[in-house]
Amino acid sequence: MSDKKAVVLLSGGLDSATVLAMVKAEGYAVYSMSFDYGQRHRAELMAAERVARQQGVVEHKVIGLNLDGIGGSALTDTRIAVPELAGEGIPVTYVPARNTVFLALALGWAEVIEASELFIGVNAIDYSGYPDCRPEFIDAFEKLANLATKAGVEGRPLHVRAPLQYMTKAEIVSKGTGLGVDYGLTVSCYQADADGRACGRCDSCRLRREGFFAAGLSDPTRYV
């Protein structure tokens, strides 16, 4: 097993599956982490397990959270409808503080297993306008990570990497396909059913479908 260790946030969607394949290709021993946070699209958790198994991670960990207890998002409060048309401003599918919480827990695991790299599949081009997907957020969290941890204080810096940050969805799909990612295992839909079938109408479905089309590749997504 490689001496280089990395923790990869794995949602079970297209982007995080691509990141996982990229990190493996760089020669890291990969530890993947998913979150059961009260999301309405819990089928993504089964997708994450499939991807982790297919790509041969060292360990896959699922952490339980109660972000639905906070609410404030269409992904954690079923009383809020998932929009099917793009609107202005930050959409209601934004989950308050989600990436901050996820990265904080991944940071803790990285310290425990002595990994120096955290990877997250956020994107600043083909995305829905979430504030915690911006490069400024990633840079700020890396600074926090090195101020707040024993590893950082003792001179073992931690790095937060977002390799998809400036890639289009088509570029991401092409990259992952070249690395052997089986996108048929993944679930991106915000309101996928229990079997992981996509609605085909939400913003996430739209971006995914357009990505495959622009890349000239067949879309393996299963729709309701």
UniProtKB/TrEMBL annotation:
Record bears the keyword Nucleotide-binding: yes
Chain sites annotated for binding Zn(2+): 189, 199, 202, 205
The entry's keywords: ATP-binding, Ligase, Metal-binding, Nucleotide-binding, Queuosine biosynthesis, Zinc
Co-factor binding details: Binds 1 zinc ion per subunit.
InterPro entries according to UniProt: QueC, Rossmann-like_a/b/a_fold
Pathway: Purine metabolism; 7-cyano-7-deazaguanine biosynthesis
Residues passing through the membrane, by range: none
UniProt binding sites for ATP: 10-20
EC number(s) recorded for this UniProt protein: 6.3.4.20
Enzyme class: ligase
Catalytic activity: 7-carboxy-7-carbaguanine + NH4(+) + 2 ATP = 7-cyano-7-carbaguanine + 2 AMP + 2 diphosphate + 2 H(+)
Record SUPFAM superfamilies: Adenine nucleotide alpha hydrolases-like
GO molecular function, one term: ligase activity, forming carbon-nitrogen bonds
Obligatory cofactor(s): Zn(2+)
A biological-process GO annotation: tRNA queuosine(34) biosynthetic process
NCBIfam families named among the record's database cross-references: 7-cyano-7-deazaguanine synthase QueC (TIGR00364)
Function: Catalyzes the ATP-dependent conversion of 7-carboxy-7-deazaguanine (CDG) to 7-cyano-7-deazaguanine (preQ(0)).
Family as reported in the entry's similarity comment: Belongs to the QueC family.
Protein known as: 7-cyano-7-deazaguanine synthase
Encoding gene, per UniProt annotation: queC
